[in-house]
Automatic annotation (TrEMBL):
<feature type="domain" description="Fe2OG dioxygenase">
    <location>
        <begin position="77"/>
        <end position="173"/>
    </location>
</feature>
<dbReference type="InterPro" id="IPR027450">
    <property type="entry name" value="AlkB-like"/>
</dbReference>
<keyword id="KW-0223">Dioxygenase</keyword>
<protein>
    <submittedName>
        <fullName>Alpha-ketoglutarate-dependent dioxygenase AlkB</fullName>
    </submittedName>
</protein>
<dbReference type="InterPro" id="IPR005123">
    <property type="entry name" value="Oxoglu/Fe-dep_dioxygenase_dom"/>
</dbReference>
<dbReference type="GO" id="GO:0051213">
    <property type="term" value="F:dioxygenase activity"/>
</dbReference>
<keyword id="KW-0560">Oxidoreductase</keyword>
<dbReference type="InterPro" id="IPR037151">
    <property type="entry name" value="AlkB-like_sf"/>
</dbReference>
<dbReference type="InterPro" id="IPR032854">
    <property type="entry name" value="ALKBH3"/>
</dbReference>
<dbReference type="Pfam" id="PF13532">
    <property type="entry name" value="2OG-FeII_Oxy_2"/>
</dbReference>
Length: 182
């Protein structure tokens, strides 16, 4: 048996001003407390994520600049940013596949990381294979649709990890999420 291809690309040090980006996100964002495992926020087109609905919200210019940066690496633009705030190593994300419902199937999903390094663990759908990537401050990871079909991913608990924020960028087709708000 061989592991399915893990179609991801990792880039270190992609942001010119990562420390200021982190400071901005910590202080200027209205974080949502509806999820138990971590806090979230959504910018751009409306989004239904993990059973929660997020209304449309203009991207602040600092986030729009990071989206533009991610677009340079991905080769296409992004119109939603779902931010995750992990206050300590006890904040986690369980294994899941990112849904491509409403997304351009040819687009990538980008994860920009700020703050403490956390590991993104990938597990093949048949659970036979496991691999992980350290997501460092200022890094960018691109994942394709193919990756979501063959692997799940998650951010496990990490003893004594410091604060981390991830910005996940998605490209919804026609600027609309799968289930537009009424
Ligand atoms: O925080 C991370 O790096 C993982 C984010 C993620 O997988 C997601 O938002 O779907
Ligand atoms: Fe994900």
């Amino acid at each position: 048996m061989t592991a399915p291809p893990l179609d991801v690309r990792y880039f270190a040090d992609t942001l010119p001003d990562a420390d200021a980006d982190l400071a901005f996100l910590l202080t200027e964002v209205a974080w949502d407390d509806r999820m138990r495992a971590r806090r979230t926020a959504s910018f751009g087109v409306p989004y239904n994520y993990s059973d929660q609905h997020y209304d449309p919200l203009d991207m602040p210019s600092r986030i729009a600049m990071i989206a533009a940066r991610a677009a340079e690496y991905a080769g296409h633009s992004f119109n939603n940013c779902l931010a995750n705030r992990y206050e300590t190593g006890d904040n986690t994300m369980g294994f899941h596949k990112d849904s491509y419902e409403g997304l351009d199937p040819a687009s990538a999903i980008a994860i920009v990381s700020l703050g403490a390094t956390r590991h993104l663990v990938f597990r093949s759908i048949d659970r036979a294979y496991r691999t992980e990537l350290a997501l460092e401050h200022g890094s960018l990871l691109l994942m394709t649709h193919k990756t979501q079909r063959a692997w799940t991913h998650g951010v496990p608990r990490t003893a004594s990890a410091g604060r981390r924020i991830s910005l996940t960028f998605r490209c919804f087709e026609a600027g609309e999420s799968a289930e537009p708000s009424m």
